[in-house]
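S2.1 Query sequence (tRNA N6-adenosine threonylcarbamoyltransferase)
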Amino acid sequence: MIGQASEDVLILAIESSCDETAAAVVKNGRTVLSNVISSQIATHTVYGGVVPEIASREHIKAVNYVIERALAEAQVALEDITAIGVTYGPGLVGALLVGVAEAKAIAYAAGKPLIGVHHIEGHVSANFIENQDLEPPFVCLIVSGGHTHLVIVKDYGEFEIIGRTRDDAAGEAFDKVARSVGLGYPGGPKIDKTAKEGNPHAIQFPRGRVEGAPYDFSFSGLKSAVLNHINHARMTGEEIHVPDLVASFQNSVVESLVSRAILAAHEFGYKKLAIAGGVASNSALRKAVAEACEKDGLQFYYPSPIFCTDNAAMIGTAAYYEYLKGNISGWDLNAIPNLKLGER
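Output structure tokens follow.
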């Protein structure tokens, strides 16, 4: 375990990996003084998904504003900041470059250390913000639009990946199914809301398994099964009850995620299980994990929805622990769109 700093550490953090431009000020890793997010959802909804070039342009427009507002809301000046943290991967390369260039410019001009942060490390670190008692090691299920990982958090910023998706990420499957039934973008929140009106056992969809890899995930077969069900219903003139369909789809995803996470906690001998990522705000997933943890005697940790979405507070928390370890980035820090978890 790493030690504590001798005096307060204030991190100014920047996040721009996809379609949220965000800045935050975080004190000593766990106290959020400000957390400002400028979302592009309305811009991209017209296209049914994120358009990378448009996302980059929107980041350029918003990045100075969110930083200025984050400092103002935290009631600190740039000279009070200890270090600058920024997401440098994974994500959309153009979007990442906006944040990285901004962070490098501010750090250089202000004479502050620069700390590059892995986006997924940030999502895991979101659990530390509201759970002051949570410390590694623990098992974490990471579920987002581009990533589905099952990891052991061995220490701050140190991960052992024990499971991952072999094809679609869970959030990606949510978006595709939502689009196929006309719910639109973003798919995750829309399916979560619509599924509350449906029967999760109305349709028996498959639970994808990977032979010889009990902790890995596969959602492409499930996605195909949903699309085949829709196509068959349309060909035969059968009415599609969308709430039942999406509730059944969501139930399949949730059962796949929860069963593997609980299995990993038991087989690796951990009593703490956390969830992270955009899909971690899904109400059915939260409820299912909470019930499974209570049944099996595990402690369950999760971030509030605002810290599940892409935000800079989680990046500030991750940057704080990297700062304590002395992991300072050079001026050659660059955006790495396919950065693997655990790499620096």
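Residues 242-267 form the longest helix (26 residues). The radius of gyration is 20 Å.
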